[in-house]
């Protein structure tokens, strides 16, 4: 199954207009601009742009094909898929010790870290460190590998960018290829993605949403990765760095909803998708698969309260999110530039569950 023409939708006009009014009410309050795409049963039933892709130093209107810095959606849409492809090829096992690939983990407490610990944020590695201060490229990867452990692997969930930098390094050491090359081969090419990439070319910047007015870099960021550690890694990392638009994010999401295929193209096996999207950490409270938040706990979640317990998704710091509900055959992609021009506005946290509830009730 792949998306049908957006004009082939049959949705009640009143419900669509209600969603549009809700989105418009958030412009310049929650975010400068946004693109919202909803797909139901393989059909795009809603795809609209709102507000502005940039406010300073000039105003630019948002368009439906505007490209966004996806931030941590990179973990879900790139890293988790690349790791599962390596599993399918027999290159790695999820329960394999990381030290068998990264020898620096041997003869220490890190020797107990398994690959699945990194994917589920239960490795014991720290959430984040300002490694960009004094490190870049290979040196930053080495600093990530040498990060301290806060606890024993498998005992606690702590959302960790560091773990996903190490997953990128695992993929590189196993294949001898760069992370962006692997993404292009495993995801972009089979899905025929044209606007999903690391380090977009300068020619695309007129169609890329601005992010923060970065004091560290002394400019408004457009087409340059927002995350500082990813920037110090050259714009390519396992935790951040991917850029895309709503339609192409939705294609990856629909592929997962289809259990690994999109049209005639197979990206992952059905078994891989099932393994990725089950809750791996239910023994410590639950709520996380392999690179995906699982909506199966009673904790507050960006999915809202009306999506099923089978739903899985992720958010990004820049204001991006994707949610997939297999039971409802629903894909929701919400891309915003909420950190432009400043990260101080956090109203997106309250907005996301409300708009998701409205969408589920409407479709």
Could you please describe the fold and organization of this structure?
The protein is α+β, with helices and mostly antiparallel strands and 363 residues long. The strands form four sheets. Strands 3-2-1-14-13-12-11 form a seven-stranded antiparallel beta sheet, with helices on both faces. A three-stranded antiparallel beta sheet has the order 4-8-5. A two-stranded antiparallel sheet has the order 6-7. Helix 1 packs antiparallel against helix 10. It has helices at 13-26, 73-88, 115-119, 138-145, 161-175, 179-188, 228-232, 246-257, 270-276, 348-362; strands at 33-40, 43-54, 60-61, 68-69, 197-198, 210-214, 219-222, 242-244, 261-262, 265-266, 293-294, 312-316, 320-325, 330-336. The mean pLDDT is 96. It has ten helices and 14 strands. A hairpin with a 3-residue loop joins strand 12 (312-316) and strand 13 (320-325). The two termini are 19 Å apart. The chain has a domain at 6-67 and 181-185 and 192-263 and 300-362: 3-Layer(aba) Sandwich (Beta-lactamase).
In short:
Helices cover 29% and strands 17% of the residues.
Question: What brief labels describe this structure?
Answer:
alpha+beta, Beta-lactamase, 363 residues, 3-stranded antiparallel beta sheet, 7-stranded antiparallel beta sheet
Annotated CATH architecture of one domain: 3-Layer(aba) Sandwich
Q: What fraction strand?
A: 15-25%
| CATH topology heading of one domain | Beta-lactamase
Number of helices: 10
User: CATH top level of one domain?
Assistant: Alpha Beta
Widest beta sheet: strand line-up: 3-2-1-14-13-12-11
Order of helices and strands: HEEEEHHHHHEEEHEHEEHEEEEH
Helix content: 25-40%
Based on CA atoms alone, the radius of gyration comes out at 19 Å
> For the record, what is the CATH homologous superfamily label of one domain?
DD-peptidase/beta-lactamase superfamily
Number of strands: 14
């Amino acid at each position: 199954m792949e998306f049908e023409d957006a004009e082939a939708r049959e949705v009640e006009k009143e419900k669509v207009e209600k969603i549009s009014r809700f989105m418009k009410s958030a412009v310049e309050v929650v975010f400068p601009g946004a693109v919202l795409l909803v797909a139901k049963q393989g059909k795009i039933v809603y795809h609209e742009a709102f507000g502005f892709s940039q406010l300073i130093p000039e105003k630019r209107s948002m368009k439906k094909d505007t490209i966004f810095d996806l931030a941590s959606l990179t973990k879900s849409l790139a890293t988790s898929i690349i790791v599962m492809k390596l599993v399918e090829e027999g290159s790695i096992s999820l329960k394999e010790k990381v030290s068998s690939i990264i020898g620096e983990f041997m003869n220490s407490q890190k020797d107990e870290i398994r690959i699945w610990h990194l994917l589920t944020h239960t490795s014991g590695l720290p959430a984040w460190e300002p490694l960009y201060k004094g490190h870049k490229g290979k040196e930053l990867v080495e600093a990530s590998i040498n990060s301290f452990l806060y606890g024993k692997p498998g005992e606690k969930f702590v959302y960790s960018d560091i773990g996903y930098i190490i997953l990128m390094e695992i993929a590189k050491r196993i294949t001898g290829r760069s992370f962006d090359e692997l993404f292009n081969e495993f995801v972009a090419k089979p899905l025929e993605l044209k606007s999903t990439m690391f380090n977009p070319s300068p020619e695309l910047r007129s169609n890329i949403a601005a992010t923060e007015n970065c004091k560290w870099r002394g400019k408004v960021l457009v087409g340059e990765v927002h995350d500082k550690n990813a920037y110090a890694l050259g714009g390519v990392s396992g935790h951040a760095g991917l850029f895309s638009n709503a339609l192409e994010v939705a294609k990856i999401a629909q592929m997962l909803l289809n259990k690994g295929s999109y049209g005639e193209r197979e990206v992952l096996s059905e078994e891989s998708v099932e393994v990725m999207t089950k809750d791996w950490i239910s023994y410590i409270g639950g709520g996380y698969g392999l690179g995906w938040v699982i909506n199966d706990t009673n904790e507050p979640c960006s999915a809202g309260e009306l999506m099923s317990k089978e739903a899985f998704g992720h958010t990004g710091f820049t204001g991006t999110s994707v949610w997939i509900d297999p039971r409802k055959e629903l894909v929701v992609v919400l891309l915003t530039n909420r950190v432009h021009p400043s990260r101080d506005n956090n109203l997106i946290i309250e907005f996301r569950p409300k708009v998701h509830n409205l969408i589920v009730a409407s479709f």
